[in-house]
Amino acid sequence: MQFRLPAKSLSLLGLALLLSLTGIQCLRGTPKEVQNAIKPVTLTWWRTFDDEGAVHSIIESYRAVHPNVTIEYRKLRFEDYERELLNALAEDRGPDIVSMHNTWMRAYAPKLVPLPSAITLPYSELKGTIRKEVVTTLRTNPSLSLRALKTDFTDTITDDVVMKSLGPDGRPAEQIYGLPLSLDTLVMYVNRDLLNLAGVATAPRSWAELQAATKKLTRLDTKGHLLQSGAAIGSSRNVERAADIVALLMMQNGAEMMNPQGVAVFDKIPSILGQRQIAPGAEALAFYTDFANPQKETYTYSASEQGSLETFLSGRTAIFFGYSYHLPIIRARAPRLNLTIANMPQIEGNPEVNFANYWVETISKKSPNQNWAWDFIQFATRPQQVAPYLTATKKPTALRVLINSQLEDESIGTFASQLLTAKTWYHGNNATAAEGALLTAIDDVLLGSDPSDALKLAALKVNQTVR
User: Fold this and answer.
1) Are 360 and 424 in contact (CB under 8 A)?
2) Residue 398 pLDDT
3) Average pLDDT, 10 consecutive residues per value, the chain (467 residues)
4) Which CATH architecture has domain 22-183+359-401?
5) Rg of the Cα atoms in the chain
6) Which one, of 186, 185, 193, lies nearest residue 318 by Cα?
7) By three-state DSSP, how is residue 175 classified?
8) Cα(65)–Cα(187) distance, rounded to whole angstroms?
9) Distance between CA 157 and CA 166 in Å, rounded?
């Protein structure tokens, strides 16, 4: 015997189900302040590179907790992103949640709102024993603290996202201005076949080993023209992320990129018992440019070559320096390449230093939904929420607790192994100008300028952007 509900009962059941799925709840007896808090909210989120599918699980998980919140995700082309963002902010039509490159944070700080110490939002839960009903109450939760930020995230994050601003009491205080979903590091992509043919058994682990390897890997014709390069390094405009590579060399060599007052230095000269030594920044710059100087025995790349990624993909360069976002490009365009991903070379005897490159999720000061936006970003960057995103995008984590789980991953293990020693440097208020200043310094040295003079000029250009 089958039990059938009357048609009217089925209609009521369907309506109840629809209401529960759409997040609409009976507000009878609910305090007015709670009713206001659970009104529909729409958050706009602007990012670049990732499709909406990459963050879909995060958005849906948040909406399961807060069904009154709709998140509109927009992906923009990197080439258009900053221009579109500036125009939108100027016209008061900007997004609530803004993705910022870590080197942009200081410049955009006046347009951003820091994380409040606590956030009050509505939370719904099923209560009752015999008669179940959804009860919505306002709950105040403490936000991520500075201590927790330093504990949970890798060290370089704190350096970039914590800035001083006026606190609730009107006094200057350190506050958090954003949180990242991931953190990338610079690595070596190695064509194993070319290393095998040259008798180089393993990828270089130090810069001295890289010099020795490039001598074996570099091939010239009778006129001294390059037939094969050992590594794409030494020049500026045709080397992917050349400014990052030379900055990393400088930091590994002990150069002070910025002093505590936020002034670019690049080439502070250390001394022992009053005796001047070789300036570490200038030494690193000279070392870098020697790879593109035909007069040097380490010559392996030319400023007239194609872009470094292109020469690597075509098999004319054995070693390419890049980030995790280069990996899908390499695999798609050179699927038969016998590829190895290796750690960045280090300076023997010096502490290990690697280079960080990442985006930060921040909140616009003009957002009418700042608390909701900040709550979502804190939710999105928690381990259980961000893990599916990292798996889907094959990106290294910014969270310490997830590093070990990535170390054995064939695609991102090398990147993850460098996270705890990854650093970056303050680019002033114009990251593009700062990188351009370093690229010009490379060009100047290749044209015959003294490395120290080239770096002094580069520092001057960066400091002109600092206000």
Assistant:
1) no
2) 98
3) 43 39 49 74 96 96 93 96 92 93 93 95 74 79 97 96 81 94 98 98 98 97 93 97 97 90 77 61 96 96 96 98 97 97 97 98 96 98 97 97 97 98 90 94 97 94 81
4) 3-Layer(aba) Sandwich (3.40)
5) 27
6) 193
7) strand
8) 39
9) 21
- pTM for this entry: 0.88
User: 206 pairs with which residues across the strands?
Assistant: 346
Q: How is the chain split among helix, strand and coil, in percent rounded to 5? A: 40, 20, 40
Give the whole-angstrom CA distance, residue 421 versus residue 248.
Answer: 12
Helix runs in 223-369, H state only: 242-252, 280-290, 308-313, 327-333
**Helix runs in 97-191, H state only:** 105-108, 146-152, 155-161
Closest CA to 377 of 27, 98, 33, 48: 98
Separation of alpha carbons 242 and 301, rounded Å: 13
Single-letter amino acid code for the residue at 291 = F
Q: Are 78 and 48 within 8 A, CB to CB? A: yes
Cα of 458 vs its chain's centroid, Å: 24
Instruction: Give the separation between CA 436 and CA 388, rounded to whole angstroms.
Output: 36
Q: 198-213 pLDDT, tens per residue?
A: 999 999 999 999 999 9
What 3 state SS string does 186-219 have?
CEEEEEHHHHHHCCCCCCCCEHHHHHHHHHHHCE
* Cα maximum dimension of the chain: 101
Sequence ranges of the domains in the chain: 22-183+359-401, 184-357+427-463
Could you read off the pLDDT of 265-301 as tens digits, one per residue? Answer: 888 765 444 455 678 999 999 999 999 999 999 999 9
Return the DSSP state at 467. -
Strand, coil or helix: 182: coil
Same fold, 22-183+359-401 and 184-357+427-463: yes
Domain 184-357+427-463: CATH superfamily, name plus number: Periplasmic binding protein-like II (3.40.190.10)
Query: Which one-letter DSSP state was computed for residue 50?
Result: S
Tell me if 406 sits within 8 A of 413, measured CB to CB: yes
